[in-house]
Amino acid sequence: MRKVYSKIDEIAGNVITVTASDIRYGELAVVSSAHGDSLAEVIRLMEDKVVLQVYSGSRGVSTGDEVRFLGHPMRVSFSDDLLGRVFDGGGNPRDKGPDLTENLIEIGGPSVNPAKRIIPRNMIRTGIPMIDLFNTLVESQKLPVFSVSGEPYNPLLARIAMQAEVDMIILGGCGLKYDDYLYFRDALEEGGAMSRAIFFVHTAADPIVEALLVPDISLAVAERFALKGRRVLVLLTDMTNFSDALKEIAITMEQVPSNRGYPGDLYSQLAARYEKAVDFEGAGSITILAVTTMPGDDVTHPVPDNTGYITEGQFYLRNGRIEPFGSLSRLKQLVNKDTRDDHRSLMDGMIKLYAAYLESMEKKAMGFRMSDWDQKLLKYGDIFEREMMDLSVNIPLEGALDKGWEILAECFTPEETGLRSELTKTFWPKAQAQIQK
Which of 317, 336, 263 is CA-nearest to residue 144? Predict the structure, then answer.
C-alpha cells in the first residue's frame, strides 16, 4: 500500500521534510505540485521526520503539495536493449529512443562479499604504452585518473573505451559539459564502439541530485552484466563533481562539515562505489577507471586524498601525458609476470633511465657542464617522451616492448642500460647490435 501525505513541513533548497512513518532510507516518492510530478528520494530519517531530495528541484513546490511514497528505491531497467543507448542520471532516455521499463533492478546495493571474489589475474590491454607497459590495468581493478582541470582526461577515457579489450563499456558522466558528452558519443560512434557501450550522462545543466545517481546506476547495470559473464569496464568522470554534489546536499541539510566543507562520510560514500569492482568466479568482472580532478593540482584535497586510500593505485595526468612518477598500478605485478620475459625488467630499466634524464635536465637548466653520459640521457628522454609518453601513441604491448628496446639501442650500449645480459642478448635489436660491434 502506497503512503500519501498532503503536508510538507519544511522546504530548504531542493530538500523537503515530511512527517511520515514506516519509510526506509533511499525510498522514492512522487511530489505533486503545480508544475507537475517530480521524483524525490529519501536521504535522511530522524524518527518520524523524513528528508527527501527532489530530483528536479523544489521550485514550484509548496507546503500543501502531495507526497506519495512508492515503496521502493531508485530502479533502472536491465537488458541487452541498453547497449548503444544514452540515458540521463535518472535512467531516462537522452537519445530520443524508447523508454525501457521492463526487468527493473534496484541501484545502490551492497558490494560483493570479499569471500566470493577471486584474485585479479587478467590484463586489460588499452594500446597506450604508459598503461600497458608501465602501469598495467588489471581486470577487476579500481583506479582513479588524478588530473587538473583542462587536461585531456575525457579524450583519454574515450580512447580507452574504444581500444580496451573488454566485452562492454559503461560510461558514467557526472557534471559533464555538453560538448564533452557529444565528444564521447561521436568518438565511440566513429570508432565503432558504441554498439558495446552504455552511457549514463549527467550534464552541468541537469539537477544536481542526478550526479549522485550516475555511479550507482552505472555500477548496478555493470554488476548484472558481469554476472552474465561479461567483462565490463566502467568509466566514471568526474568523481570530484560527484563529491561536490554530496557536499552541496550536506550543506542544505545543515550537516556539520568536515575537511573543506565536505561531509564526514565522504570516504564511505566513495568506497561504496569503488568497492563494486570485482571479478566473479565463473562469470564476468567489473573494472573501474574514474577521473578525479584535483583543484589547484592539490593531491591533499579531500576527494583525491580519500580516493587514494580506497583504490589500487592511480594514473597522474599532467601536461597531456600520463606521468611515470606518481602513477602506480598496485596489481600490475600479478599480470606482468605472464606477459613477456622482459616486461618487468624493461619497465624498471626505462623508468630508472628516465629519472636520470630528469636529473640531467636540472643540471642543464642550472648551467652545469654536460658530460657525454648526460648527452645520452637527454637524447633518451626526448625520444622516450615523444614515442612512449605521448598519448597519441597507439601500439599493442608487444610493440611497446619492442619499441622500448629500440629506444634504448638508439641511445645506449647494452652495458649502459643496467639490464641483465641474458635479456639484452635475447631482445636487443639485431641491426643495432651489428652496428655497435
Answer: 317
Query: How many contiguous H segments (helices) and E segments (strands) does the chain have?
Result: 13, 19
Judged by DSSP in three states, 402 sits in helix
Distance CA 332, CA 403 (A): 20
In 10 A of CB 42, how many CB atoms? 20
21-61 pLDDT, tens per residue?
Answer: 889 988 999 998 877 888 888 988 988 899 998 887 777 88
Q: Which tens digits make up the pLDDT trace of 350-364?
A: 999 999 999 999 999
According to DSSP, the β-strands at 36-46 and 27-33 are: antiparallel
* Residue ranges covered by each domain of the chain: 3-73, 76-334, 343-436
Q: What angle do CA 7, 90, 234 make, to 5 degrees?
A: 145
Residues composing the chain: 437
User: For residues 431 and 171, which has the higher predicted lDDT (pLDDT)?
Assistant: 171
Per-residue model confidence as pLDDT tens digits over 370-401: 999 999 999 999 999 999 999 889 999 999 99
pTM recorded for the entire structure: 0.91
Q: How far apart are CA 247 and CA 174, in angstroms?
A: 14
Classify domain 3-73 by CATH number: 2.40.10.170
The CATH code belonging to domain 76-334 is 3.40.50.12240
C-alpha torsion sign, points 316, 319, 321, 323: negative
Q: Please give the Cα distance from 312 to 174 (Å, whole number).
A: 22
